[in-house]
Design a protein that fits this description.
- The structure holds two protein chains of two kinds.
- By secondary structure, chain A is an alpha/beta fold.
- Helix content of chain A is about 40%, strand content about 15%.
- By secondary structure, chain B is an alpha/beta fold.
- In chain B, strands 3-2-1-4-5-6 form a six-stranded parallel sheet, with helices on both faces.
- In chain B, a hairpin with a 6-residue loop joins strand 7 and strand 8.
- In chain B, helix 1 crosses helix 8.
- Classes of the chains: A alpha/beta, B alpha/beta.
């Protein structure tokens, strides 16, 4: 069984916003064909690299986000390249396009052009600011999208500048919502025969991350600032331990405060009796510098004498929301993730031995998710894909000679 | 209690103000037991695109977001929270006190006519209520049943309580966000609750709907909020498993661009983000900032040189940007093709950003108690759908109880009156 999206053919024009959407679809069995420029796309220059050696087949970022896809090269700025793409699009179910606004139109490969020959086609364009509007042509990167989407404003230290979240979360937010929009349109297209243009704005995808800040301004006129305190209130925040940090959320919610006191009591923590005073659970006191310093003195002394793992285990017995601030190494060694068989094999032709990488982001009882193949090497499936299109092998040689593929 | 309808009716009766003929999820009904952050933001995506999402709530176990700020005019109330409202656009809401046997019966009848059932309780909660997956499947053989535990439905840590920020911590996002020489700072929000878990949840439900259409089979989906987040950090995991490197947070630095950072502008706590990926963009930036003397300085001539000298470049650029208004400078530099952006506040997003206004990202819906209030529209447009996506504000607690019991389950007014008297519908 190849997966629930078997039978869907999707053309992904390589770019920063489409990668993860394509992976979500491909790992579920869609035939996703990554279309790169001859020589390979820019995504291949993203670190980290295998053994820290840059090269078109060395990027782990590329290898991870392009699993299960086939790959071809095609020069979309030439008439021959455009013609081939048009022929593939006539038979495709969806296109993931993250070129800047206007590029696909200039190539004659935009939604109106392609849907004329294939009305059921779903065309997902993922652009920094959406397809229209006064900023539609603005240049952008992950950092600037995190800024204009406003999430950057919330991150960082109170005494410093805003700081971006790790791991290109702005680009990835766009990719995740692009996958949702594409599936919505595909469901409809498969029953009605009518495709659609899914117009994704990366900025708006970042805006979704605001929690309640938009409503705070709308309803109460307050602008929420950076949330980067080490300790937000007594019992809530980051606390250092002997081998790193933990995050504790033991105040303001549920029965956690009294459970925390029971735990610290059982551990004979000095000063625990002071925490029995009801004042600690009054927000005003818990947020005061006196409250925070007092709690830090009692709990912080205890946490510094324990490892992340010890604190995590202790909190489990008392049902307290306390988590280690895990590093990638902690995750790979996590007993819980091992229990769930979360990690799967990462295979790569440049590696002798396998390694682990994240597996399915959801477990499904009767839908098969798998890494169908490693990410494609540059042009790996040119011959196969163009033969499916009806090209003879001498045509393919000619295209290569003309730098079309 | 018995239900008068022996077979629950399958047809969906739209409320009059709803006309969902053009939305892709028309005809799909979601029985939504989810609460707090990640679950409701997932079902919002389904509701905004036409699914009939019926929230099961109770004043005896209130969704905590209903009583968390912000409140309209700062006045507390179960129906006044914007935190709750934004997550629950286009949904219907009913009140059921699940301590009553007859409330459980109603929940079961709703599951029997539901295509999708969603919860994000601590795993095991639905089983204890008698409506876990096996029970649901007995009622509705092709049910798509989504559980969204913070760490999944099984595994040694699955029963731990968790929230958005514990997910950030346990997944590595927190570790990777902040300055390398300071404590990890995260995003300042419960990030995984708002984008990562909801988008993955909506995606997998849509895939399951396709699978059901093709095979007739339903689905049990165990989505771990943590695993959806770790899945986005794959390159950092591979850097460890392949290269043995434990990645550290890097502030605002980037491998592919320099200068790359956030720079102070005129005013209190105002900033502009600047990313220079190429020599062309570097020259455009120096022109835009009036720093032409830097153009020919070999220390900054290439990307690798600019990386090497980023600290001093940051000082020079920051001194220059601090003379400018952030929005004016951003416009000027964008005209030269430099990727920059104002670090916008919520106020900027609502009042200043012309693009979001053009895109109508913040529609205003008239809520019966909160009045006209701002919601998030979906961040993408299905351009062929004419129907307005944002149709209905968040439900009052129990607002649609009678409508759903009568319209969906075919119960009589008398029966509903009796249940009301028995305090089942609270």
């Amino acid at each position: 069984m190849t997966g629930p999206l078997e039978g869907l053919r999707i053309l992904e024009i390589a770019g920063p916003f489409g990668n993860y959407a394509g992976k979500l679809l491909a790992d579920f069995g869609a035939d996703v064909i990554l279309v790169e420029e001859p020589g390979g796309g820019k995504g291949r220059s993203r670190p980290p690299f295998i053994h820290d050696e840059p090269g078109v087949e060395q990027s782990l970022d590329f290898a991870y986000f392009n699993s299960s896809k086939r790959g071809i090269t095609l020069q979309l700025d030439t008439a021959d390249g455009q013609d081939l793409f048009r022929r593939m699009a006539a038979d495709a179910d969806a296109i993931l396009d993250s070129e800047p606004v206007g590029v696909s139109k200039s190539r004659g490969l935009d939604y109106p052009a392609l849907s004329a020959a294939n009305p059921a086609l779903v065309y997902t364009s993922i652009t920094p600011y959406g397809a229209d509007g006064p900023h539609a042509h603005f240049a952008a990167t992950d950092l600037t999208l995190m800024a204009t989407g406003g999430l950057l404003w919330r991150g960082g230290y109170l005494d410093g500048s805003p700081v971006r979240a790790g791991g290109n979360q702005g680009n990835l937010a766009a990719s995740q919502f692009a996958a949702v929009g594409t599936m919505l349109a595909l469901l409809d297209a498969e029953s009605s025969g009518q495709g659609d243009w899914v117009d994704v704005s990366a900025q708006e995808c970042v805006v979704m991350a605001h929690e309640n800040a938009i409503q705070f301004y709308d309803l109460e006129g307050t602008v929420r600032g950076r949330g980067g305190e080490e300790q937000r209130q007594a019992g809530i925040g980051i606390y250092p331990c002997s081998d790193g940090d933990i995050y504790l959320l033991a105040n303001g919610l549920g029965p956690f405060w009294s459970e925390l006191v029971s735990w610290l009591d059982a551990e004979h923590v000095e000063g625990v009796d002071l925490l029995r005073d009801p004042k600690w659970q009054v927000t005003e006191f818990a947020e005061s510098s006196e409250g925070k310093a007092g709690f830090s003195k009692i709990f912080g002394t205890f946490s510094l004498s324990r490892t992340k793992a010890e604190l995590y285990e202790g909190a489990k017995q008392y049902g307290i929301p306390l988590c280690p601030v895990n590093t990638p190494a902690d995750l790979v060694e996590s007993p819980h993730l091992a229990d769930r068989e979360y990690f799967v094999d990462f295979k790569h032709k440049e590696l002798d031995a396998g390694a682990l990488m994240p597996g399915a982001p959801f477990h499904t009882s009767s839908m098969s998710w798998q890494i169908h193949r490693s990410a494609p090497t540059v042009g790996q499936h040119n011959a196969e894909v163009f033969a499916e299109l009806g090209l003879e092998s001498h045509d393919i040689v000619g295209l290569a000679a003309g730098a079309v593929i | 209690m018995t239900l008068s309808a022996s077979q629950p009716e399958r047809s969906y009766e739209c409320s009059e103000e709803l006309n969902m003929t053009d939305l892709p999820l028309r005809g799909i009904r979601v029985i939504d037991f989810s609460w707090l952050g990640a679950g409701p933001y997932a079902t919002k995506i389904l509701a905004d695109h036409g699914a009939d999402v019926i929230r099961i709530e109770s004043s005896t176990r209130i969704d905590r977001l209903r009583i968390l700020p912000p409140f309209r005019d700062g006045i507390k109330g179960n129906n006044r929270s914007g935190y709750f409202a934004d997550r629950n656009s286009n949904k219907r809401g009913i009140a059921l006190n699940m301590r009553h046997e007859s409330a459980l019966d109603i929940a079961k009848h709703l599951i029997a006519v539901g295509d999708v059932v969603v919860n994000n309780f601590t795993p095991g909660t639905m089983e204890r209520m008698g409506i876990g997956y096996e029970a649901a499947r007995a009622l509705r053989p092709d049910v798509i049943y989504l559980e969204m535990g913070t760490q999944g439905a099984n595994g040694v840590d699955s029963r731990r309580p968790g929230y958005g920020n514990t997910v950030s911590s346990v997944t590595g996002l927190h570790h990777l966000s902040g300055d390398p020489d300071r404590y990890p700072v995260g995003t300042g929000t419960n990030y995984p609750d708002h984008v990562v878990a909801p988008a993955h949840a909506a995606f997998v439900v849509l895939v399951a709907l396709r699978h059901r259409r093709r095979t007739g089979e339903g689905q049990y989906i165990d989505l771990s909020q943590a695993e959806t987040m770790i899945g986005l950090l794959g390159p950092a995991i591979l850097d460890y498993t392949v290269n043995g490197r434990v990645q550290m947070r890097r502030g605002n630095l980037s491998h592919g661009a320099a200068p790359h950072g956030v720079y102070r502008c005129l005013g209190d706590d105002r900033w502009i983000a600047i990313a220079v990926r190429s020599d062309t963009e570097w020259i455009a930036l120096t022109d835009g900032l009036g720093l032409a003397s830097l153009r020919n300085d070999s220390r900054y001539a290439t990307l690798s040189n600019r990386h090497r000298h980023q600290a001093e470049l940051d000082d020079i650029i920051g001194t220059s940007t601090s003379q400018h208004d952030a929005h004016e400078l951003a416009s000027a530099l964008q005209e030269r093709g430099v990727p920059v952006g104002v670090v916008q506040t919520a106020q900027d997003l609502i009042e200043v950003d012309r693009q979001l206004r053009h895109r109508e990202h913040f529609p205003v819906l008239d809520h019966p108690e909160m009045g006209p209030s701002i919601y998030n529209a979906p961040p993408f447009r299905l351009r062929g759908v004419d129907e307005p996506v944002m149709r209905m504000p968040a439900p009052l607690l129990g607002q649609h109880t009678r409508e759903v019991l009568a319209g969906v389950l075919g119960m009589s007014e008398d029966e509903i009156d009796r249940l009301e008297k028995e305090e089942v519908l609270t």
